[in-house]
Structures are given as C-alpha cells and as structure tokens.
Here is the input.
Amino acid sequence: MIETPKCLQKENFRFCLIRPREKRPFELKWQKENNYSYNSEKLIIHQKNGGNYGICLGYGNLICLDFDDESLYEKMVALLPETLTIQSGSGAGHHLYYYCDKTEAFKNRLFFIGISGLFDYLLSSPCISK
Here is the structure.
C-alpha cells in the first residue's frame, strides 16, 4: 500500500487522486474542490487500492522546485536552503519543497527548473508512474 510520508502529513496540505501507474489527477476541479487531507478516508482507501496521489501545491504555502537536469541540480542545491528533497519517479530529477508566503507567484519555468505553486501538483513519493 502507498502511504503518505510522515513529513507530508500536515493538516493544511492537500492531495489529489491519481490512478495507479499514472501521473495526472482523474477528478475534475482537483485544484479547489476535489482534493483531500492526508487523513481523509477517501485518500486512504484510494492508497489501499494501489492508487497514486499528487501533492497539491500552494496549500499550506507549499511550493516545489523541480530539477530535471542533474548537473544544474548539483550546482544549485549548494546555494539553496536545506529542505525536503525527493528524487523524481524517473530517477533523473529532484523535487525540493519549500514554504512561501506568495504561492500564486510561483508558476513558471526558469532555465531547466520547474517552479510550481498554487494550483499545480506533483506526483508524490513513493508513487509509481509508467
């Protein structure tokens, strides 16, 4: 069974449902309506049935820097504050999670870094996609 990591079990974080071995939410309006707390019965049953889930960014002031380029990640990580870092499902990238007061400002792609904030999501660890 896929479980939400302890470091993401916070009341103000939200999660969207994703089918097993897929990467995209299947419920409409997941950005504002169809998202769930880590202890939601619907999310827990979905996880028990092997479903993936995404972290809805922006909730709890959570943003993510998504590095797809390993050499860029190696150069930048030393310049950034320590934080929760998860290797991407492909194994080729890294997701660095930070808190930010103005999450709506973070929806951008800068160089080879995806900067995600309000109304975006990332497939959560330990989920598996194709």
Notes: The two ends are 17 Å apart (CA to CA). Residues 61 and 102 are 7 Å apart (CA to CA).
